[in-house]
Amino acid sequence: MARLIQQLTEQKIRALTKVGFHHDGAGLYLQIRPGGARSWIYRYRLNSRTRDMGLGALADVSLVGARGKASEARALVDDGIDPIEHNRAQAVIPAAPKRLSTPTFEEVAEAYMTDRLKRLRSGVHRDQWQQTLRSYAYPIIGLMPVDEIETNDVLAVLRPHWESKL
Q1: I need a labelling partner for 82 at 20 to 30 A (CA). Which of 2, 43, 128, 142 fits?
Q2: Does residue 111 have a pLDDT over 80?
Q3: How far apart are CA 145 and CA 29, in angstroms?
Q4: Taking Cα atoms as reference points, which of 59, 61, 63, 24 lies closest to residue 43?
Q5: Three-state DSSP class for 17?
Q6: Average pLDDT for residues 45-62, to the nearest whole number?
Q7: Overall CATH class of domain 105-161
Q8: Can you tell me the distance from the alpha carbon of 30 to that of 57, in angstroms, rounded to the nearest whole number?
Q9: Is 114 a residue whose pLDDT tops 70?
Q10: DSSP character at residue 154
């Protein structure tokens, strides 16, 4: 006898109130908890071990979305890969840093100094400007995008030197 799959419909889901697991087929279940919370569960067996993988709340994941997520997890199980462990490993891998669309404080300050410091006659003053920013500001806010810098960030640069430096 063939297994029935895709047994649930949107109408059936709305009508369900019984606490427990409601089978859709191919390992996908709608779980209804005693408080009324509803979530999608993909149940699978790998290496003689039964596991339940949460796919999201019914409010966040539609029936079609849950079937798609279960299908992706099923493909991993078919390849002998535990989908829960696979997702954990993917979460640990840091995303490649993307180029900020907003320039950093250091980029803006260097561009400003390149333009503005030409007007200063004294080489000592030019060096003082640059060294002050490199010593005090860049370590704290140098890599921050300029549109994210707030008053507290500027104060974090100034407070340690407020009383001791001119």
Answers
A1: 2
A2: yes
A3: 45
A4: 24
A5: coil
A6: 91
A7: mainly alpha
A8: 9
A9: yes
A10: H
Domain definitions of the chain by residue range? 10-92, 105-161
On the 0-12 / 13-18 / 19+ scale of CB atoms within 10 A, 9 is exposed
Cβ-count burial of 79 within 10 angstroms (0-12 exposed, 13-18 middle, 19+ buried)?
A: exposed
| 1-8, long-range: CB < 8 A, 24+ apart | 6/67, 8/63
pTM of this structure: 0.54
Closest CA to 29 of 20, 40, 38: 40
Q: What is the mean pLDDT of the chain?
A: 86
User: Would the pLDDT of 74 be above 80?
Assistant: yes
> What is the token pair recorded at 60?
């966040």
Domain topology for 10-92: Double Stranded RNA Binding Domain (3.30.160)
